[in-house]
């Protein structure tokens, strides 16, 4: 027979998440929840006490006045079952804790009850991605990387800008992307690895060092800044040290003021129960909401263990064929045979794909020079309209561009904007600062400037572009463009006579992400239908093009036309002074 307490125990079986406040140890959170659950279970109505049969001498009930006693059978409750004797019926409920948070940190903490404790182990082995929000402060360093530690150094930070911070974060993320590929132990030449990379599902196969899968700046108000981090196998000390290392890369110091976990695998901040809801009445619905997720976690872990066992057995069987394979490969090398391009051999990039940066092929006006040309156009327009020109007005566009890029990155796609709205809003803001207040005139000027850069008139093709693109086509390469530009790029390339060379274009506006975010390269790989190891990327930006592509396993080349790139970690064979060098370089790699 089921009792209310047993029914309650059946419901307290699974995973749920709570919000751990800062300054509270995770053990106190666990003990508080355990105490609340024990109170709820012990408050359930208990089963009726056992009855004992006793024979007692009681006065006869015949109504006579005699004092005769009669042996009477009576049923009495057993005092041994009384709550005052037994005390609480339940003394322990095992509450399992997932990836823990130290006292300095706050955020989502996953807990398990009943079979949920087994699911917690499966969740740990699956190496799920966790998201954090890190708040830092520039200007000092402490012994424990927090703002409450002992100060060991102070420094200035006036030279730190948002752009410098973004470059440092991109460099760190690129290095970690390469580590993720290394520890995932997947063969990048397989279709499975390609699909995992496109979906962002690459995970370390076994225990690995902490790896960052995403890193960006959410807010920069010196000396304070906020970072968003996605990572696996991390610790909170590692994250605090990350803030410290970011400060060192910026030639200053930084301490971490807050660590908040916003997601732990499928458990998000909005799913976490606050302190006032750590009761059975709120925990039971939370467990029910994630019951399907809990089953899926355990099922995936079982499948992963099966695959791992099969891989180990396959590896054992494969050792018997190692000598034969080595002899066959040696004979092929002696014969000097090369795989045809259609087979996409490991040693040859031919038959793969070539990604180009649009500013390297179709213009001598890169983004910063394009802005320079645009602010001259604005200054000329102001003079033509009779407005007095000042040097501050000529710099207004450049300043407005930087501000717009910070407030609405990547043409404001995340805020519901598009390239045209972004540029026209930018131009209107610039003209308004220069004294133009007529709304109709502002709209006309903004639209005219936008369309002036939509055709080939203001763009110039590099002399080596056409010849190189034709040579790469002859080599059997599928060519595409990956660019931090808006949707006007298609028309510009058509007007410049370059569009026919490319099988696809991918702008940051269409991709909804911009370089150095690896997602834009993942989308390009999907469009090309070629694994990363058979892809070549040419670009002129050290972080956006070279580091990011190399971190993803793409053969990246840095185009340095004027010899201004002084990075020492780029070997000579990865540098190009002209696009004309590319076909010969690709043939040398075969």
Automatic annotation (TrEMBL):
Q: Give all residue intervals belonging to the Pseudouridine synthase II N-terminal domain.
A: 92-233
Report the Pfam families cross-referenced here: Hydrolase, TruB_N
Low complexity bias located where? 309-327, 337-349
A GO BP term, please? pseudouridine synthesis
**Region annotated Disordered, chain positions:** 303-349
Q: Which InterPro entries match?
A: HAD-like_sf (IPR036412), HAD-SF_hydro_IA (IPR006439), HAD-SF_hydro_IA_REG-2-like (IPR011949), HAD-SF_hydro_IA_REG-2-like_cap (IPR044924), HAD_sf (IPR023214), PsdUridine_synth_cat_dom_sf (IPR020103), PsdUridine_synth_N (IPR002501), Trub2 (IPR039048)
* An example Gene Ontology molecular-function term: RNA binding
What the record says about family reads:
Belongs to the pseudouridine synthase TruB family.
Please report the name of this protein according to its UniProt entry: Haloacid dehalogenase-like hydrolase domain-containing protein 3
Q: Which organism is it from?
A: Tachysurus vachellii (Darkbarbel catfish)
